[in-house]
Amino acid sequence: MDIDWKQLHQLSDGNTEFEVELLKIFFVETKTRLQLLESALADQDCHTLQYLAHQIKGASGNVGLRKMWQAATELEKQARQQDLSHGSLLLTQLNNSLLVVQDFLEATT
Fold first, then answer.
1. Can you give the CATH number for the domain in which 17 is found?
2. Model confidence over 80-91: pLDDT tens digits?
């Protein structure tokens, strides 16, 4: 699984219900950010890409989504360097990581 459960358990102090709530909030906010990021990528808006990737990096790191954190870190770096040659691939990786959260949330309801 793409979620670092140890980190999430530590963040939630072992409260499973709180973990689910955190992941629900993360999912909704990140889904919106990814939609904005997709638009910024289409517009080649490096400033907005860097900002959104930074937000996703922080949020995904907090809930233990390491693959998403890595992709967001790389996208932030590329946007800062104004090199978006791998932007579409990184966006796909970010979306795939969010699907892991979605699948988990659907399994818990």
1. 1.20.120.160
2. 999 999 999 999
The total domain count for the chain is 1
How distant is the alpha carbon of residue 85 from its chain centre? 20
- Residue-wise pLDDT tens digits, 19-30: 999 999 999 999
pTM higher than the cut 0.85:
yes
- Tell me how many degrees the CA angle 33-94-102 measures, rounded to the nearest 5: 80
